[in-house]
Amino acid sequence: MLKLKNLTFVLWGTLLFLGGCTKEEQAVAPTIANESLTTVILKATNTADAADTTSCRYKFTFDSQGNVTSSDSTPLNLKANATYAVAVQLYDELQSPVFDVSAEIKERQNYHLFFFQPTPISPANLVTGLTSPYIPGTATSATGPYLNLSVARTDHDTNNPAYELGLADKFTTGEASSGNLEVVLRHQPNAKNGTYAPGSTDLDVSYKVIIK
Amino acid sequence: MRKLLTLLTILISNLIADNAQAQLKSYIGISAGLSTPTGNFAKSDYGPIYHENNKAGYAKNGITMGVDGAYYFYKNLAIAGNLTFQDQGGLSKKDVENLAAGYTDGFAVDNSTVTANKRYNSLNALAGPQYSFVFNKVILDVRAMAGVIKSLSTPETRVDLEDDPTHTFYQRSSKSASFAYGAGLGLRYYISKKLGVVLRGNYINSDGIKITNENRNINAGRLVTKQPISLIQTTLGLTLSL
């Protein structure tokens, strides 16, 4: 009986030892770079006339080391006082066949967020916040002339609550004007909250916009 | 198939009838041995993006020890119970590398760092009906059990995405409890009138203990909220008739 009791003490002693025994392990895993972003296209369809489409393109050229050597863009021509459904299309044209990066962004929508900044813009129109696609800190103009373009994102991710994404958008034009449209893709891993601040920038391009 | 089932039923019924005898003596014992994780609890794969294996436990083979006993209330029928402790290890270097690679891909970041500590330590308290077949000095115990599994600790992880310390997230060590059930077989051999050795095998399953996560802001990457536990315990012990 005494032996049984001693054995019990040994067993529970081992238990206490194991309970306190812990070893820390740490690992860092780098990414395996697999695609470049070479081309950004905004494809706009007039909501009043599906046959009325227009687009603009921003294209990067890379050297063999993957460094950007040059870029060029085409302007976005829009009609005055119209509404457009806009699709953002991203491609890696270094791959064959061409890789659709926008499909990848759609898959990873829960931590990506597009921002669209028309300029020049008045201080009153630069409203930023949870559902605004505009970029905080953008320089405003008190006097104009302004680019009469407003942007709203129309698609959402699968977070709970859902946040906007920006691969699909609505552009609304006013009177004839011209200016620039900056398009920024924010990468916000475990940080997306609808605002611009968290995360880092995956893409930042600018188009000339002509409304007439 | 029907014939086989009928044959088995007759065989078991005869075995029970042949074995039914004067009431067996209740017993208590201690045992120790190997605890082997099974199913998702044993898996160590992060899983592909959007199909992460949120149930993979990365559990290891470990030791188990405990007390076991049975109270015979009618011939060979008893109420049996056991209280066991089991250790299923912690995350290895390979495990944290696997997790880090998964989070790097899952959040499309340049790198992620996973730091892990603590181990799977738990207590099981299970009880249920037992029937014992007597073959001279050897007794075969067959039992079904249900009860509770109480986690004392589970592996804890900290995940740093790139160099952004504000969005580090954690999977905390769990001390929660959950319903568990299982079945067991035991072979007792009495080396004296009172003292015997026992070889026992138990299968224990639990749908899962609750796991708490902190600072998970978006729906992406592996997220464990409930850790299923299933294991097979193979033990050797001493038993004392009462």
From TrEMBL, chain A:
<protein>
    <submittedName>
        <fullName>Uncharacterized protein</fullName>
    </submittedName>
</protein>
TrEMBL record, chain B:
<dbReference type="InterPro" id="IPR027385">
    <property type="entry name" value="Beta-barrel_OMP"/>
</dbReference>
<dbReference type="InterPro" id="IPR011250">
    <property type="entry name" value="OMP/PagP_B-barrel"/>
</dbReference>
<dbReference type="Pfam" id="PF13505">
    <property type="entry name" value="OMP_b-brl"/>
</dbReference>
<protein>
    <submittedName>
        <fullName>Porin family protein</fullName>
    </submittedName>
</protein>
<feature type="signal peptide">
    <location>
        <begin position="1"/>
        <end position="22"/>
    </location>
</feature>
<keyword id="KW-0732">Signal</keyword>
<feature type="domain" description="Outer membrane protein beta-barrel">
    <location>
        <begin position="14"/>
        <end position="211"/>
    </location>
</feature>
